[in-house]
Amino acid sequence: MCRHLPPANRPARSATTGTGRSHTDMKKMLTMLTMLLACMNIAYAQLPEAEIKFDKTTHDFGTFSEADGVQKCVFTFTNTGDAPLIINQAVASCGCTVPSYTKSPIAPGEKGEIKVTYNGKGKFPGHFKKTITVRTNGATEMTRLYIEGTMKDGDASE
Fold first, then answer.
1. Residues in CB range of 154: below 8 A, 6 or more apart
2. Is 86 within 8 Å of 105 (Cβ atoms)?
3. What is d(CA 5, CA 49) in angstroms, rounded to the nearest whole number?
4. N or C: which end of the chain has fewer CB atoms below 10 A?
5. Cα separation of 130 and 151, whole Å?
6. Ranges 3-12, 69-78, 116-125: which has the least confidence
7. Which of 157, 153, 156 minimizes the C-alpha distance to 122?
8. Backbone phi, then psi, for 57, in 5-degree steps?
9. 67/70 Cα distance (integer angstroms)
10. Which pTM value belongs to this model?
11. What's the confidence (pLDDT) of residue 46?
12. Are 137 and 52 in contact (CB under 8 A)?
């Protein structure tokens, strides 16, 4: 009392994925999806993008006395990209270093600056090296700037 159809009456089985689609249909879908992703990548790569380029990334204050403990420098940069550049953040590695930066968007080809003030008064004399981390909307999202110098104890600078 078998309820199965005899082999001659059974429909031929096709190669399916279990969802009723043939392997050929799946290959076509996968090829189309791959082409769509490739087109999206090409379109995204052609979007305008900002790019930051600094004239220098390190400043050496040299040797100075604790009496002249407040030192200042300026890092100048250019937007070498083809979209407006925005500095989202400039953060120093410690409280003795304070960066201030251009807040408005910098047009392509234009310059901006990051002013850095180091206050060594009341700090330990000797060599120091501090980091300023700059975050932008540019292709290079993060850049590190460095200041360094040697603060001598006392009033006379050498």
1. 65, 66, 67
2. yes
3. 66
4. N
5. 13
6. 3-12
7. 153
8. -115, 0
9. 8
10. 0.69
11. 62
12. no
